[in-house]
Amino acid sequence: MDSIIKLIIKWSGKEYELELTESETVSDLKNTIHKKTCVRPERQKLLNLKFKGKAPDDECRLSQLKLKPGFKIMMMGSLEEDIAEVNTTPIDIPEVVNDLDIEEDEIAIENREEYLAKIDKRIKDYDVKILNQPREGKNLLVLDIDYTLFDHRSVAETGAELMRPYLHEFLTAAYEDYDIVIWSATGMKWIDEKMKLLGVTNNPNYKIMFHLDSLAMISVHIPKYGVMQVKPLGVIWGKFKQYSHKNTIMFDDIRRNFIMNPKNGLKIRPFRQAHFNRSKDEELLHLSKYLKYLAKNCNDFSSINHRHWEGKCL
Fold first, then answer.
1. Which residues contact 252 (CB under 8 A, 6 or more apart)?
2. Which residues lie across from 211 on neighbouring strands?
3. Burial of 61 (0-12, 13-18, 19+ CB in 10 A)
4. What structural domains does the chain harbor?
5. Entry pTM
6. E strand or H helix that includes residue 212
7. Local structure of residue 32 (DSSP, 8 states)
8. pLDDT tens column, 205-240
9. What is the distance of C-alpha 35 from the center of its chain?
């Protein structure tokens, strides 16, 4: 009798539990996913499902994949109605406003002892996996992923469609003056998969120093908004003494993520509706010029009001 395999599909912010037998194939898996999510098999991209280092063929049996019980498969794919809708949605959609975003006039919390203690704990306990060694004399650029480097909810089938325009050109230019860190409020497995999908991991023109995930973040309490998770740059500064407020800048589409380091954060315009905006989005192109400006002209990045960055390079 065939053994039952219990799997979890992670798609569009939700998780779906599946049960299949080891003798069933990847094609059977896709059909089961279709029943659960309504995403057709030909539109499913199963990011971390591998056989001998490659995406398995539809005829490959699940027993060959040696999946552990409860294995989570990250899927990208679009519903037919979403694909139809994207072709009829007006181009001039107003920017989505995140009503939990933190404005500049909110009370400063970066010096609160209880939060500094949390940072100290992350410095002590969080294990950073170095992908490429820091380089002497370089500044530090910390980048978010979702809506910063790519539109993770767009109706798209490939990494190229999701990727923000000029991404590789931007990272190549930044690498001349900056060591680069990716910090996302997700799990490390998903960060690794997204970077592979976007062609960042093994790009010959630049190198990522390391990735940070949600476990490196800390929780803070803002009276107006409640408890939220943020990305304190002090975690990096505590582990790598060559970086500090003087030579670090973080790009994120949500300002609250750098509330512990408000003078070292730049709120990037979110990249949404990729199908409509890919042809006209030049944010990374302009930010490349701003990074070059900082590297050449500024001895203390925290002394600059990064809200006015466009006036320095446009």
1. 143, 144, 148, 231, 258, 265, 266, 267, 268
2. 182
3. middle
4. 4-78 (3.10.20.90), 113-313 (3.40.50.1000)
5. 0.72
6. strand 208-212
7. H
8. 999 999 999 999 999 988 777 889 999 999 999 999
9. 29
